[in-house]
């Protein structure tokens, strides 16, 4: 239904892995890659002026990775498979490098894309769920300039201009979309040019969302989707015990005129565990319900 990086001081990195018959994936990180490779989460560094984008590619198998610094962004992008669509994925709360690599495997298994994951510090206090959530929300503000720098650089690169690409914001990662749309896009000559934008299981307050959602694609005219599960148990807990407000991923109201909204509650009814009710776009749930893969593939690769 259609309704009316900059990484400071340390290297950011792009992890590159080739999958036979599939695309490749990269990780753009806002924390120290050496610590990240040891599965330690590192808080984002303070902003400063005069910093530059730096990249390193992580090559090898999933179980054995090493880092090579790459100084030229365009040269790095050329190492991907240009015939395959690019998907930029912005993860949610409680993610570290290990979980992102596992998620990348699932993406590559289910969707024929080159995957770029924007990795930000969201697992600072893993044993304290509420404190970690609140810290992660603060981290979004710290990391936002890095996200803007990356996404604008990617939008400007020759491959992104020549081939189609999409971006998916998942869960708390949607806060990047909200901040980007409210404070950056309207006040700049943004080059943000995806063909589709997916706001997936958005863990952001629903009130007045239509304004910033509409702003998000004001320049690109991209296809815009809000994909959610009104029976999402993860978001229900966040709504009841942390936010105290309705979340966009539970019950959208005052819908954005330029977005399509998909509620997967009926399709998922009685078929998910606690985690799958929130992350129902990859993993075993997609194998059990093939229609999920078809719908998400259509959003990632719109006609």
Short description:
The chain has 303 residues and is an alpha/beta fold. 35% of the residues lie in helices and 19% in strands.
Could you describe the 3D structure shown?
The protein is 35% helix and 19% strand. It starts with 13 loop residues before the first strand and ends with a helix. An eight-stranded mixed beta sheet has the order 2-3-7-6-8-9-10-11, sandwiched between helices. It has a three-stranded mixed beta sheet with strand order 1-4-5. The chain is built from eleven helices and eleven strands. The chain has a single domain (14-300), classed as Rossmann fold. The chain is an alpha/beta fold.
CATH class: Alpha Beta
Named at the architecture level, the CATH assignment is: 3-Layer(aba) Sandwich
Structural class: alpha/beta
**Unreliable spans:** 1-13, 32-53
Structure characteristics:
eight-stranded mixed beta sheet; Rossmann fold; globular; 11 strands; disordered N terminus; alpha/beta; 11 helices; 35% helix; 303 residues; three-stranded mixed beta sheet; single chain
Note the topology.
Layout: E1 14-15, E2 17-18, E3 24-29, H1 33-37, E4 55-61, E5 64-70, H2 73-77, E6 85-90, H3 97-110, E7 113-119, H4 129-156, H5 158-162, E8 165-170, H6 174-184, E9 196-200, H7 209-216, E10 223-228, H8 233-243, E11 260-263, H9 265-268, H10 284-288, H11 290-300
Parallel strand pairs: 1-4, 3-7, 6-7, 6-8, 8-9, 9-10, 10-11
Antiparallel strand pairs: 2-3, 4-5
Helix pairs in contact: 4-6, 6-7
